[in-house]
Amino acid sequence: MTLMDKMVTQKPKVMPLCACGCGERITWIIRHRYNGIPKYKIGHIFKNRKLPKETLEKYYKGRQNYLISEKTKKKISQTLMGHKHSKEAKKLMSLSKQNEKHPLWKGEQASYTAKHIWIRRHYGKAQMCQNLDCECKNPKRFDWANLSGKYLREIKDYIQLCVSCHKKADLNNNIKKLRIKWSNLIFE
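Now predict its structure.
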C-alpha cells in the first residue's frame, strides 16, 4: 500500500468509533491525512485489551527512564518547597538576559515600535519640542522623531518634537530642514 493509497484527502463527515469499545469518536488530527485514520483514540490502545505479559513488560521497560517513583517525587517536592531566589540572584538573572544577551534580541533588524520603545527606555519620555519654528503655544504631547530614517540605536539619530511638528515633518518628508535647538539634546 503506497502513501497515496493511504492518504485521506478530506476530513470525513462522521469519524469512526474507537475500537476499544468506549463509544467515543476518534478526533481528527492533520497527520491522519497522511497516515490514515487509526482504529483507537489516543491513549485507548491498551484499554480493555489483554496483551501478553512479554509485550507489557517490553512497553513498561521502555518507559522506565521516563517514570519517576512516588518516593522520588516527594523528595523533589520537599527540597523545592519554600525555595525562593534572593533579590540579588533575581537581579543577576535579569542582567544576564539584557539587550544583546537576550535570545530574542534582533539588533538593527528590530521593528519600528521596538526601536521607539528602546529610545524611550534609555532616554526617557520626550519632554520638549526642539523645533525653533514651532507654531504650537502649549503642546501637551511630545514624540521622539527619527532624523536619518535608518532608526539607529543612537540618541544622535532622534530629536524631541511636539506631535504637530512631528506630523508636519513626516508628511512633508523634511525632517532634515527643521531648525533644531541642539543645545537641549542629551548626548552621552
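The first helix runs from residue 3 to 6.
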